[in-house]
């Protein structure tokens, strides 16, 4: 991706609160807190709130030990029962005592200047309520799943940047979101993705939500197809859910976001997958009426394109797979997936 050569920077380091929702993060929580100590941001200006969702693996104790080990101010709030990430985000932001809040995940690593660039962009305009960073996938072993994700990421950030230049994007990368607390409203706890739900609430409140490609963070991408499928379907279903619950944003009241960005995303999420597969079926049927071989060739071409990503990462294969994920997710939107089992955890 072509990045902005002159990212926004900050002249001083405002105090901020970092909210980390956790559930069984013993493999990564020490590393996550250490990263906050290692980045180019004064530790004395960072306060950390770990909101734990009833972990059973020692996450709470390890987080407390990491605060002491790395000299970071922090506390762990253990919820009385497991209620999911959305509820953890709401609780963590409500407990923050700073004007700027960062929400992140336990299994990612911020690049050295990620917070500086994100905060710089956030404070560059009073109308900006939240900024998210760009995910740099870390691939341990090349596989079909990692190749598909790599191809997908080559266009994802460009789309979100284009939307941000128009007005806002709500397709946030949840592991790095910097927001103004005054722009935040509690997100629904039992439906919708936490990151998309957060952005949509902030846009509802009259602010913009911006994608900052220079604020990078790293995340391990699983090479296990079953784990990626489970993760993709959950994320897609919750994103679709958040979209449906905010259809009132399709309105001139919300400027170019309501007139262009949101309607285009709605078509991309709901209409495009159905139209794509319907067209494949219809073309195969129509050509089969001329010659059965022609109809079969359509399906052969379809599956060859789908599986070509196993040989070399490409956008065609990634596009088809993501249309499949979206189509299947349409049937899973209202299954109450606000509590889930995470994919394998790896330190980055």
Automatic annotation (TrEMBL):
Transmembrane segment boundaries: 266-286, 292-311
Pfam families named among the record's database cross-references: Glycos_transf_2 (PF00535)
MF annotations from Gene Ontology: glycosyltransferase activity
Keywords: Glycosyltransferase, Membrane, Transferase, Transmembrane, Transmembrane helix
Source species, domain of life: Archaea
Domain Glycosyltransferase 2-like: residue ranges: 17-148
Gene3D superfamilies: Spore Coat Polysaccharide Biosynthesis Protein SpsA, Chain A
Residues making up the signal peptide according to the UniProt record: none
UniProt xrefs under SUPFAM superfamilies: Nucleotide-diphospho-sugar transferases
InterPro entries the record matches: Glyco_trans_2-like (IPR001173), Nucleotide-diphossugar_trans (IPR029044)
Name the record gives this protein: Cellulose synthase/poly-beta-1,6-N-acetylglucosamine synthase-like glycosyltransferase
Organism: Methanococcoides alaskense
């Amino acid at each position: 991706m072509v990045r902005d050569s002159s990212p926004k920077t900050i002249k001083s380091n405002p105090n901020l609160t970092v909210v980390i929702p956790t559930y069984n993060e013993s493999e990564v929580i020490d590393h996550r807190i250490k990263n906050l100590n290692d980045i180019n941001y004064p530790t004395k200006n960072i306060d950390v709130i770990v909101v734990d969702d009833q972990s059973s693996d020692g996450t709470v104790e390890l987080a407390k030990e990491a605060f002491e080990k790395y000299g970071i101010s922090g506390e762990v709030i253990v919820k009385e029962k497991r209620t999911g990430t959305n509820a953890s985000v709401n609780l963590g932001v409500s407990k923050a005592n700073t004007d700027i809040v960062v929400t992140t995940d336990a299994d990612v690593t911020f690049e050295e200047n990620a917070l500086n660039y994100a905060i710089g962009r956030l404070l560059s305009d009073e109308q900006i309520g939240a900024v998210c960073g760009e995910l740099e996938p870390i691939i341990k072993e090349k596989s079909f799943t990692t190749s598909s994700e790599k191809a997908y990421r080559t266009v994802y950030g460009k789309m979100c940047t284009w939307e941000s230049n128009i007005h806002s994007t709500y397709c946030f990368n949840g592991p790095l979101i910097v927001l103004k607390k005054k722009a935040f409203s509690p997100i629904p706890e039992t439906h919708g993705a936490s990151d998309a739900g957060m952005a949509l609430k902030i846009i509802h409140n009259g602010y913009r939500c911006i994608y900052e490609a220079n604020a990078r963070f790293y995340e391990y991408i699983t090479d296990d197809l079953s784990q990626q499928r489970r993760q993709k379907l959950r994320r897609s279903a919750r994103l679709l859910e958040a979209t449906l619950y905010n259809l009132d944003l399709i309105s001139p009241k919300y400027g170019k976001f309501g007139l262009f960005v949101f309607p285009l995303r709605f078509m991309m999420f709901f209409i495009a997958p159905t139209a794509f597969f319907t067209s494949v079926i219809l073309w195969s049927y129509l050509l089969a009426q001329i010659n059965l071989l022609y109809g079969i060739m359509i399906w052969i071409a379809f599956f060859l394109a789908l599986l070509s990503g196993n040989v070399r990462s490409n956008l065609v294969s990634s596009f088809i797979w993501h249309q499949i994920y979206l189509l299947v997710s349409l049937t899973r939107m209202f299954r109450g997936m606000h509590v889930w089992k995470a994919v394998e955890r790896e330190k980055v």
